[in-house]
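INSTRUCTION: Work out how this chain folds

Fields: amino acid sequence; protein backbone structure tokens

Chain under study, with its fold:
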Amino acid sequence: MRHQGVDYRVRRTLAAHTAAALTRARLARPSGGWLASEQALDELCPLTGAALPQADWERLGDLLALGDGVAEMADAVSLAQAQAARGLRISTALALPDAAAAARDPRATLSADGQALLHLRHLQSARIVQFARHWHGAPEAGFPLDLAGGQWLAELPAPSSSPPQAQAAGLRRHPRRRVMPWTAHPADALLLTPAQALGLDRDALAAMARLLPRAAEQHFGLHPGELDGVLLGEGPTPALLLHEAGEGGLDVLRVLLASPRALPGVMAQARRLRHHEAAPALHTALQTALLRLAAASLELFLSTPRDDYDARHAQLLRQLPPQATAARRLLSFLHAQGLRLPDAVRRTVQGLYVQPDFYFEPRCWVFCIDPLSLSEGEAGREALLDRGDEVWTWAADEDLSACVARRPDLFRRER
């Protein structure tokens, strides 16, 4: 690491109870959305709201939040040689701790000739997450750490030929594990999602991510390095995250959405950069895209019923316990289909020992149950029917789509 022009080599972490500090997370591969350990059972992408298959989630374990550490000055030449020989693979993700607040993020679209080219979202409650996966070329993920003393190790010790009992005793005294260091910080950020009509592939978008921070700094008269850009998500057309990299920034990301000509002006400046700086050569597709964006018009979207609908879904989802997998599945299905959401979650029924999953006005109680325990709670459901209320029951092994479709009066379309 470098601080005030001096290179240092970090020797150990000062985290108390290192083993207990390790945590887990999930990463939505298509979008780069990050779910912390307390959100690990959520099934929806935090950025897009889409239900993702298991293959699109990456499970990350043994994550160690970076804190205070011990470092020593390093010889710049040997350090540079070591970094050139290895180098870190660092990934960036985006966390939205407050889903309800995120649903109210201002959004806009840059359009030209009736075609949407770029979708924008000003992230006001986001946290930018960066985590180091491994050294380049390393066969395994993570970095060896002595959990007892906090020392970073060059390698994990080779398996011992000692008896298993002696090996276990040694591990208890000096537990060692590969961990992934990570850090997260709040930052003013602008998420730019390219439309297919823009015609840019991943390489072109990577070049755009390098150009836009410098173009915005020059357009607004900022100091170099106050803004940064990075790609989010895997696949051929990732999103681009433009964010403040340090103190300052003059709130320019908010201005980019508030002023109709600000963002097109930054795009025009990005086209001029290649003539004045040693910027990477821009291929024709990127030049054409920047030209179209510079002439595009900005349409700002204020809070809409869709935003309120998404916020309501996020609020209901948080009220469900993690183990209520069937209820969470029904709620996610209704949201994905744009159907009516429940009016209440886990509302108690006065005078009855029964726990419905959802309540719909005026008097409909919904139960989502495991097929193996279908008979459990049957007396409570019968009691609700006897007093004149309505009951809708779905067993988790039934075709959810077909069951919902049979009740269009209850699950009407709302968006």
